[in-house]
Amino acid sequence: MKWNADLYDQKHAFVAQYGESVLELLDVKPGEYILDLGCGTGDLTQQIQNKGAKVKGTDLSPDMIAQAKEKYPEVDFAVENAADFFTDDKYDAVFSNAALHWVHDQNGALRSVYNSLKHGGRFVAEMGGKDNMARLIEATRLVLQNHGYQQQADAKIWYFPSVAEYATKLEEHGFRVTFMAHFDRKTPLQDGDQGVAKWVTVFGAQYLEGIPDDEKQQILAEITQRLAPHYNEGGQWYADYKRLRFVAIKE
Ligand code: BEZ
């Protein structure tokens, strides 16, 4: 996925804002060495550093990392693949907010996280959980199918696991899960009636690949129309986010 870091920062600041409550769960101690995995444009990475930790922020997107470095030149950032990374200098904690659901190779990610932690180190994260954005995904698939775009409708862009599925995966990789929760987070969308179209364009670009521009606009309008009864509350649009949040310890 090619990210537009500017658009991400302008339209989706809420990603980092909600992440602040995951930071509380991370409970940073001064002097700890912490990895922010999938750091985007670095807002939470900088907050971790401000709490007195030594931090490294990594992301697969060179555009995101370039923007992060520009915003926070005093923070260490690097382009790295969450599914395949290695460090000699082990972390006290690995933190991740709203990034893991983009990783297709989950076994690679959990292996890399486990190997990068000190013994007793913690993995504290939040990601999309089972049925995250279920209404939007269902509406998008249906409209794409109606327009004859079966391949786009079948695109598997994200991984949104259940508690049972992800706890099992973490245990299989050697972690002890000390906390896990799956909860609703009704999330306001910006840009009013254009909010759904903007969201799909920024985050679900793969659904729209290869579709001519005018038909794309028509498809986005139809998705919006289908979602209106569920998402539009008196002009403010809300998305049906569901989060999976956990703490897992390397034993
Ligand atoms: C999420 O944070 O749940 C999310 C964000 C963008 C795309 C998919 C999911």
The residue fraction in helices comes out at 40-55%
Give me the number of helical elements.
10
CATH superfamily: Vaccinia Virus protein VP39
Q: Tell me the series of helices and strands, N- to C-terminal.
A: HHEHEHEEHEHHHEHHEE
Give the domain tally.
1
Low-pLDDT ranges: none
Largest sheet: 8 strands, mixed
What does the overall shape look like? globular
Share of β-strand residues: 25-35%
Radius of gyration: 18 Å
Q: Structural class given helices, strands, pairing?
A: alpha/beta
Distance between the termini: 34 Å
Enter the CATH topology name.
Answer: Rossmann fold
CATH hierarchy, class: Alpha Beta
Give the overall average pLDDT: 95
Q: Could you say what the CATH architecture is?
A: 3-Layer(aba) Sandwich
How many DSSP E strands? 8
Provide the list of bound ligands, each named once.
benzoic acid
What is shown here, in short?
It is built from 10 helices and 8 strands.
SSE layout:
Blueprint: H1 5-11, H2 14-26, E1 33-37, H3 43-50, E2 54-59, H4 62-71, E3 76-79, E4 91-97, H5 106-116, E5 117-128, H6 134-146, H7 150-153, H8 163-172, E6 175-189, H9 195-203, H10 213-231, E7 232-233, E8 236-250
Bound molecules: benzoic acid.
The site of benzoic acid has 7 residues, from loops.
Structure, described:
The protein is α/β, with parallel strands linked by helices. It has one domain: Rossmann fold (3-Layer(aba) Sandwich). It is 41% helix and 26% strand. The chain has 10 helices and 8 strands. α6 packs across α10 (213-231) and α9 (195-203) packs across α10 (213-231). The longest helix has 19 residues, at 213-231. The structure holds benzoic acid. Benzoic acid binds at residues 98, 101, 128, 132, 158, 203, 241. Benzoic acid (BEZ) binds at residues 98, 101, 128, 132, 158, 203, 241.
